[in-house]
């Protein structure tokens, strides 16, 4: 992902931000032979290939594997002209691996951007997205004839960073592919771009409930189905604010999460409506017809059948939506600060939905705070649910409560729940393994399921659990070499992602035999290796684990050179992102998400990935300051770091983290804030483009910055957590960088920081990149220019030759 080169944490709709958190197991230095990384130059970094999004999918018989490789800028086309939704997909290509022959071939070489590969149930056809002909379309590769079908009737509209939403879905007979597409222009008003956009507030309420009450204009999408036999596109649902959808196994029904709107509470909670429709065509676009330039009525949620509607579901972006195998039921979870955090199941025959997990509690784990009431409660399932799976008879559902390590079997009719697995001491995800294209349980043996856990400290294990007897204590388990990304439906072959490469794994989770498919890590990083070590710190009885990367030949060469202060040690850059949790294994392995850090290492800097737990108290400043300074102190205590030469770096919410740190401590001698924000007031009320307001993220507990209250209920909290209000205290030289067309965090946030510091006579520089968005990565030249400026800033103030400027 090009955006990830500089460590961007992708921000999506409703302020949703992603960051890996799956650290490793021990507190000792990681052996270089097993977990080393390479220092790399800027030029090398922008030219590397890597595993792409939608990493891999395998046919049901385990014979054919489709996987994505991200080609670094081979033939980049702007998202503005082709419809590629996010820069991480630009340059992606699809490859096919034959497990019988052990050979790979590139299916879409030179096409531009191609991704999202999904096999038909029989493995004969592969659906994917591509902008080969200048627009983003749905394509199908016919494997047996080695031929392609394009569906140019409409522009495809996949999600950008949230690649598990709106995946391509096949009907069980392999004759239709369901996908989200852009709606045609609206009538009346002629050109949609000149039509007025109406923002409306009902005016209800007593003025004390300070959450948003207006329904924001939603992006308009269609739900379409591509026909294999005729090459036609069936329009099933017109002009809907689709967040996610699921199709019944027989293809007769579709469930659609959409129409996002706020609850209007002091503690933020988004709501979605769920529409269940019959997949009867509203319109059929035959080959040669096109939606481009067409004008259609402005009727929202237009469909041929009468939908079954479940309104105001407390959700986020529509995760965890699954049809039963018989197509008669649909299940979902509720998520959010004011959600009940449970699994719901709706019987489509009567339109009634029931909570089927409300009685499930887990006393083995410490209780958490329910922010709607301030009361504590035991574990509820769906707060940690990753995926809902059905039994073949459509009578039961299997869900994993990830943080507690429990796996539950729920009755679709609301009967007693049964715990079938419990792994104590789990700090990360618990996942029930299953083929990605099916919401039905796969059994590793009769009545037996496979489970992947992330143990405390980060090591992964694979388990086998019986649905009959279960493994209550979670004893045993097999060490996992990586993360399972897919599992063949009728074969024991699993696909595993490990240290940036793709592997096969066979052996029913016991006597596992691995086979390597890609060799990207060896190709990308053949040169010198560095070392990585965990940095442990204590904060209020809580253990923090930062990750320190140091250059090759440490310590002899590094410690021999004196810093500007006369002390000896490495200059340090602290990599920060509030709410990131513990650093991930990929940061050690050299995943390109952290290539920016590796360029610093190549330059002779140490880099500390600071662990910053998610804050739910509403005190964003303190939740940033205390853990970062504790880990910096622990890093200095190793004797490897020159405490007079410490800088800090952050992007997006990490930029806010940087701004917060330098306004409250003089610990840092140089700072870089990219696409950040410093004025929480204007972030709360303003915005543009895809994110008309950050209201939800600002006031949600655990959000960004997560002040846990609305502006008018506690305005002083907003002041206390806005770095722009404390610029007079800054002594750290600050480099601000922002893309002119950033639709996640408006560029005015960096302008405010710059003008405030400049008027106070502080050392500050602001670099604005015309035409760039949140990622600032439209070309190799732009990336190299940006990172060259970052390195130059650190070299000036904390580099080996810095003279205390």
Task: Describe what you observe in this structure.
By secondary structure, the protein is of the alpha+beta class. It contains 13 helices and 46 strands. The strands form eleven sheets. The protein has an eight-stranded mixed sheet with strand order 39-40-42-41-43-44-45-46, with helices on both faces. Strands 9, 10, 12, 13, 17 and 19 form a six-stranded antiparallel sheet that branches. Helix 12 (748-759) links the parallel strand 45 and strand 46 (764-769). It is globular and about 70 Å long. The protein starts with 41 loop residues before the first helix and ends in a 7-residue tail after the last helix.
Topology diagram in text:
Blueprint: H1 42-45, E1 50-58, E2 64-70, H2 79-82, E3 92-98, E4 103-106, E5 114-119, E6 125-130, E7 137-142, E8 147-151, E9 169-170, E10 176-182, E11 185-187, E12 221-227, E13 233-240, E14 242-247, E15 253-262, E16 270-278, E17 283-285, E18 295-297, E19 302-303, E20 308-314, E21 321-323, E22 329-333, E23 343-347, E24 352-355, E25 368-369, E26 376-377, E27 389-390, E28 396-401, E29 406-411, E30 418-422, E31 426-432, E32 448-455, E33 460-466, E34 478-479, E35 483-487, E36 494-498, E37 501-506, E38 513-516, H3 520-524, E39 531-539, E40 542-550, H4 556-559, E41 570-575, H5 585-589, H6 595-603, E42 606-609, H7 620-636, E43 641-651, H8 653-662, E44 670-674, H9 680-685, H10 695-699, H11 715-720, E45 734-739, H12 748-759, E46 764-769, H13 780-798
Parallel strand pairs: 11-18, 41-42, 41-43, 43-44, 44-45, 45-46
Antiparallel strand pairs: 1-2, 2-3, 3-4, 5-6, 6-7, 7-8, 9-10, 10-12, 12-13, 13-17, 13-19, 14-15, 15-16, 16-20, 21-22, 22-23, 23-24, 25-26, 27-28, 28-29, 29-30, 31-32, 32-33, 33-34, 35-36, 36-37, 37-38, 39-40, 40-42
